[in-house]
């Protein structure tokens, strides 16, 4: 199978699977008061995170048998593996748990596929917005808006592309729930004309759609928080780099799959 045919098949299947996980998340979201428990790192987890992750892991096992899956909740429970396979999936079933608890809709289901340290294919789905972004390096990126709980039809998709911004008129996007002084310091070195805040991996999608130009993140994140959004942005012509401009890679098993600082950029050059 060519890369194109493989990616087309995978992206369609990941879209469907993330909508299925999104339905389980919405059942909890719309079901009255949500009970949050604190994990070992003191971040919150709910039934929605756990139900969505179980759906994703079962679906990925059928779709890509034998490909290791590194997922947030299983990693919190059992620890992360000590080696990085040459190809693997990174899953965050509910990124932006704080946004989920605040009921502001800015949370996402994330599936990223990494080959040789690079996120080559990804799917980000925002269940409460009915918004889906998929992309691969070989095929490019596209986005769909559909009704809640619906799998978008093929004509619901539009191609997306990161934009070329004039240096003097950058729109920067930053976390709604986690800010840190180093990120602010970095932003003060750019000519930022406007600012937006968003929860979860939606920040990558805003840059991928050409609605923002830069998303700097110096505070802590894990590889499963960023792989899917990174893949969509790279497929849309943007890039995620370390602050010094060197490549930002995945499979950092020696760091427990923790990310260092990064800057997500729109189209440049
Ligand atoms: N102290 C910390 N350590 C590790 N990850 C953290 C963290 N604070 C925030 N994060 C990560 O940032 C993500 C939220 O990003 P944002 O602030 O952009 O919405 C969280 O995802 P989860 O909500 O999946 O736990 C979490 O993984
Ligand atoms: Mg997350």
Automatic annotation (TrEMBL):
Substrate binds at residues 72, 94-97, 225. Mg(2+) 1 binds at residues 72, 92, 94. Keywords: Cell inner membrane, Cell membrane, Hydrolase, Magnesium, Membrane, Metal-binding. It comes from the Bacteria. Its main location: membrane. The keyword Glycoprotein does not apply. It is an enzyme of class 3 (hydrolase). Its cofactor is Mg(2+). It catalyses: adenosine 3',5'-bisphosphate + H2O = AMP + phosphate. It is found in: Cell inner membrane. GO terms for molecular function: 3'(2'),5'-bisphosphate nucleotidase activity. Mg(2+) 2 binds at residues 92, 95, 225. Its EC number is 3.1.3.7. It is a peripheral membrane protein. Transmembrane segments: none annotated. Converts adenosine-3',5'-bisphosphate (PAP) to AMP. Belongs to the inositol monophosphatase superfamily. CysQ family. This is 3'(2'),5'-bisphosphate nucleotidase CysQ. It comes from Chelatococcus sambhunathii.
